[in-house]
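Input record (one chain):
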Amino acid sequence: MAPLLPRPHRVDVRISVASALAGLVFWGLGLEMQTDRPLGPAWGLAPLFVLAGLELLRRSRPQFALAVGTVALVADQFTAGNLASVMMFTDIMYAAVVYGTPAAARRIPVTTGLITVAVTIGFLAWWKEPEALLIGVVTGLVSFAPATTGVLVRTHREAAGAARLRAEQTALLAEMDRVQAITAERARMARELHDMVANHLSAIAIHSTAALSLDDPKTTRDALAVIRENSVEGLAEMRRLIGILRDSSEDREPAATPTLIGLGALVGNARTNGLDVTLDDTRTPEDSKLPAPVELAAYRIVQESLTNALKHASPGLVTVTLTQRRRSLDVLVTSPYDSPSGPRAPGSGAGLVGMRERTELLDGTFGSGPESGPDGKVWIVRATLPVDPLDLDPADEGVTE
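The corresponding structure, as predicted from the sequence alone:
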């Protein structure tokens, strides 16, 4: 079972002991605050020890300590009085505001202020002497002054606590932003690594499987030539990516990113790998250069679509169509969808995820799946990449709306 009274704070114990000893010294020396009281000096020890005991509760039971302490201080007025008792009462009043409830912290200063005013007016009306004002001053020093001091200290502590809470929240938000930035950067690196290397590795897997399965020297030599070409290109891409990751200097030259100008070379490389592919770029020379993020996303979508066609498509024509509109760039890739007759490379499904992520990062729309066409079933990859007209050349007025 929990104790009825919590263990007092060490500082409160020291205050209680020191105040009691000081009161005993004052009593032993005969230092009295008032004379002609109905009770003798020995009676002053009772309020002294009561207030000293209440000091132990100044943090845990501040309002109870104030209520009992007020009674003890009133009782002390019927004795010779002890300065230590008055000092302990002021500390209890201060603690009641600092450690008490918010309602008590608001109520106590108002109450003590009203009591101070009432005592001053009452004694002034009773005595009809200016010395009556001293009674009001003493009452204010004993009650109102420590209460207002407690309000100032409590307000300062609450402001410091709010500032500390805001700092912790700011640090937490900064940490969340950092984690999100790291996660986004890792996802971007994963997409770039997959898009740059997967095409070469898929071609290597396809042609190495063909070389192992067909006992034809010419086919083997051709397959090895394609394997070597893709290995060299893939290694160069890997070295470029590793160099970018390792070089953290701020004055490093920005890495060249693929653009739609390189689609011809990309399609040519796919033909070298054995894919029957055609490029239908409906954009005119008058079309302005697209924003770099749009060009990079379109290039990577076409690149990954050709990689998937190389791995999974049936023999037949693969078409790549680009249509630039006033507010978007449409990318369409179609490939035969029947069961492939030749060797195929395994897939992880990360390619479609990467294409969708690239499109969604630009607030575009992406779709993929099988559809029925005039020449049979085809797999279609369709992406619409938004383009802000403000990013286009003002002379670009002939683009399809």
